[in-house]
Amino acid sequence: MSRYEDFYRRSIYSPEAFWSEQAELIDWQTPPKQILDASNAPFANWFVGGTTNLCHNAVDRHLATRGDQPALIFVSTETGVEKTFSFKELHTQVQRTAASLIELGVGKGDRVLLYMPMIPEAAFAMLACARIGAIHCVVFGGFASGSLASRIEDAEPKVVVSADAGSRGGKIVPYKPLLDEAIRLSAYKPAAVLLTDRGLASMNLVAGRDHLATELAPKLTSHDVPCTWLESTEISYTIYTSGTTGKPKGVQRDTGGYAVALAASMKHIFDGRAGETYFSTSDIGWVVGHSYIVYGPLIAGMATILYEGLPTQGIDQRPDGGIWWQLVEKYKVTVMFSAPTAVRVLKKQDPALLKKYDLSSLRALFLAGEPLDEPTARWISEGLGVPIIDNYWQTESGWPIITIANGVEAKASKFGSPGVPMYGFRVKILHESTGEELTAPNEKGVIVIEGPTPPGFMQTIWKDDARFVDAYWKTVPGKTVYSTFDWGIRDEDGYFYILGRTDDVINVAGHRLGTREIEESISGHDNVAEVAVVGVADLLKGQVAMAFVVPRSGSAATDPEAALKLEGEIMKRVADQLGALARPARVRFVTALPKTRSGKLLRRAIQAVCEQRDPGDLTTIDDPTSLQQIQRLVGA
User: Fold this and answer.
1) Which residues touch 591 (CB under 8 Å, ≥6 apart)?
2) Between β-strands 192-196 and 210-212, what pairing exists: parallel, antiparallel or unpaired?
3) What's the per-residue H, E or C state across 217-264?
């Protein structure tokens, strides 16, 4: 048995002993009394009775040994700013932000919603919440007012932390008007808004509610804010993920289990070492940004790069497809984490840029967010000459479910496969309608995880235990297993291959979007009778949304000019309500949508036709001409 197989088996068959050892990777104020309480399945409570603090483990515990070493390296190619904060300086900034939140009435258990660009103040606010035991809820800075409002209503934050604006590709995106509109739309109103003014866009301040961070800080009586020790099972944060219904799902994370899971993953998966530099190109609005921009690298004592900008723009705002490699050289990055979409963008740049910089510090490039296609993997692998390690996980899991644990044992990656199940994850492939386990190589089924789920995995859906159980644990007949809602196969060597979603969530450039949310937005247009949105494979973005609409009246289905006008209106509506990311690549008009005789939309058949694949068994279709119409439109 290989070293990793032995390591994995211990995690599955002796989980208490295994995770008790991993728990030694972090500081505890009070050691855990019980490693695992799985008495109320499918809920799993880890390190029960132990008290700890995420901010202490990410910042304070490093002050004595590496206080002057870099902790947070901020690089914005949007504003031309580059600034490094040592662990001591980070500690000071986090305490100042924590004091400001306390001044605004935030205490343990209160929610704080962050609607922030990729700036240091966003990381300060996350760590400040963790420091005082407040629950942070980060919403991606590009989200439209409608989406933001629904998250404000669900989280009920005491304070919203935001900024005047973000910037993307040199285009200023004012956040304050979007936030003001979201608060107006929300039935719940936060007591205060704490704002960073970057000087990018003017802001209208609401008297009594809005506070500029620079003006509030001098009024504080003390900047010395000690860590609040939390029970391991107390909530650290919530983060929203797309559901198949319009209502967002708040993934709830604990404190101790998450800290241990991240510390273990930094050692066993990413092989990150204290004093080195980690560069994740993600955003703090997504789970990768939580786990591997902010908490994971800092817990490991590494410097972490917080990057604002495109992968193709230099610090001088001029086009530069080598900016990331320049940063790898400058900051001696050892571990890099990005997404296949970003690599596909870089693939269009001059290949000489990969050889222009000294990348000898880099040990591996990790990619996640959507399936990694083989041509992209080969191109970047040959260009960088380091292992390219795909990894498969979800907002719900908090850290990789399937990848290669090179920190335990060096193992070859296979192009097209994220790898093998990680320690703590009991990953199985089941038949979707019988629930039978599929054990033969290359049998396609639903990828599931048997409980108890490992530390760091979601505890539940915020304020909705019943939905957590129903949505995730009751979808496979006769089995109480967590469904990933992904199809997959396992080869003869035990490597997994991900084949796409079983539900109606699509993956656009690493961002998960619910097709139902997009459909709801489109169907709100006065001239839309019916709509179907499917995810269609796209070489650059992985997937794009494609909408098919049956108009209520008019000539959109027959007149190109009318179609163009209505398509523009629908696209604007989706962008305004859900953000530009959710806007379909195309809206096409049809006289009928393909359905079964019982009225169920044949989404898979529509998707297959769009991707020029065989739509498969169509014996249940009510009107075959409806699919033929889509076929003609797509082929035109």
Assistant:
1) 550, 557, 626, 629
2) parallel
3) HHHCCCCCCCCCCEECCCCCEEEEECCCCCCCEEEEECCHHHHHHHHH
The answer to whether the CB of 163 falls within 8 A of the CB of 196 is: yes
In 3D space, the residue among 270, 8, 196, 223 whose CA is nearest the CA of residue 102 turns out to be 223
pLDDT along the chain (636 residues), means of 10: 94 98 98 98 98 98 98 98 98 97 98 98 98 96 86 97 95 96 98 98 98 92 92 97 70 98 98 98 93 98 97 93 97 95 83 93 92 81 94 96 97 93 98 93 95 98 97 93 94 92 79 80 88 91 93 85 95 92 94 75 89 81 90 89
Say which residue the tokens 């003390």 belong to: 222
Cβ atoms 56, 230 nearer than 8 A: no
SS (H, E, C) 344-377: HHHCCCCCCHHHHCCCCCCCEEEECCCCCCHHHH
b/e 315-345 (16+ beta carbons within 10 angstroms → b):
beeeebbbbbbbbbbebebbbbbbbbbbbbb
CB atoms within 10 A of CB 363: 17
Q: CB 291: neighbour CB atoms within 10 A?
A: 28
Q: How many separate helices (H) and strands (E) can be counted in the chain? A: 21, 32
Which helix (H) or strand (E) covers residue 575, if one does? helix 560-578
CA distance 122 to 115: 8
Q: Which amino acid is at 444?
A: K
Q: Which of 463, 49, 18 is nearest to 251 (CA)?
A: 463
Task: Name beta bridge partners: 548.
Answer: 532, 588
What three-state secondary structure class fits 27?
coil
- 232: Cβ contacts below 8 Å, ≥ 6 apart: 32, 45, 46, 47, 48, 49, 50, 51, 52, 254, 255, 256, 257
End-to-end, the C-alpha distance of the chain in Å comes to 56
Q: What is the pTM of this model?
A: 0.87
Q: Which residues are CB-neighbours of 389 under 8 A, at least 6 positions away?
A: 364, 365, 366, 367, 403, 404, 406, 413, 419
Report the distance separating Cα 106 and Cα 214, nearest Å.
18
User: Which residues have CB under 8 Å from 611's CB, separation 6+?
Assistant: 536, 537
Q: Which pLDDT value is given to residue 597?
A: 58
- Burial class for 314, CB neighbours closer than 10 Å (0-12, 13-18, 19+): middle
